[in-house]
Amino acid sequence: MQTSWQEVVQISQQYRNARVEYWLSETLFNFSWWILLVTTLGLFVIWVILLDKKRVFEILSYGFLVTTISSILDIIGIYLMLWRYNHTLTPFSIPIEIHIIQMPIIYMIIYQYFNPWKTFLLAIIINAFFFAFILEPLLVWLQVYELYNWKHSYSFIPYILLGVLIKWVIHKLKQNNYA
């Protein structure tokens, strides 16, 4: 039996409606939702205070690349059913608070304060360890994040590569006077 495009659209609409209904009844204003809201706003305020205004374009470029790549990888992971987000600030499947605000801010702070490669690598490795082995399990415990065909240890290397490769790209762009 072949599935028609109209059936795919109908299933997508049903999923969207179910997701919004679930979000309104189970997520909005629950404990996890408040944690996500407070940490998102708190990190944003801290970042605005700490941001080196002289390097804002460079730091934001780094952050936008973190946002873009991590969001694409997250969408792929969700599509492949490696993980799913049960609770988010919005009814969207991808948690914009994590991949568009929180994670890029943490990476931007590391990029800003740990400029030499040696200290940057150490900071990014510590960050990857924190994300993979402390933050991800905490998000599972808070029922924000649910693993299906993924383990926290799988995230460790990608968190390092994300920071390192983007720093390398930004530095190459700066060397060529593009940034």
Structure, briefly:
The chain is built from six helices and two strands. It has 179 residues and is mainly alpha-helical. Helix 3 (56-79) packs antiparallel against helix 4, helix 4 packs antiparallel against helix 5 (117-141) and helix 5 (117-141) packs antiparallel against helix 6 (152-175).
Q: How far is the N terminus from the C terminus? A: 53 Å
Separate helix tally = 6
Mean pLDDT: 95
Helix-strand string: HHHEHHEH
What summary fits the major beta sheet?
2 strands, antiparallel
Uncertain spans: none
The main sheet orders its strands as: 1-2
Structural class: mainly alpha
What is the radius of gyration computed over CA atoms, rounded to a whole number of angstroms? 18 Å
Q: Assign a percent range to the helix content.
A: over 70%
Report the portion of residues in β strands.
under 5%
**Count of beta strands:** 2
Shape: globular
List the domain count as a whole number.
1
Quaternary structure classification? single chain
InterPro entries: CBO0543-like
Organism: Ureibacillus aquaedulcis
Protein name: CBO0543 family protein
Transmembrane segments: 31-50, 62-82, 94-114, 121-142, 154-170
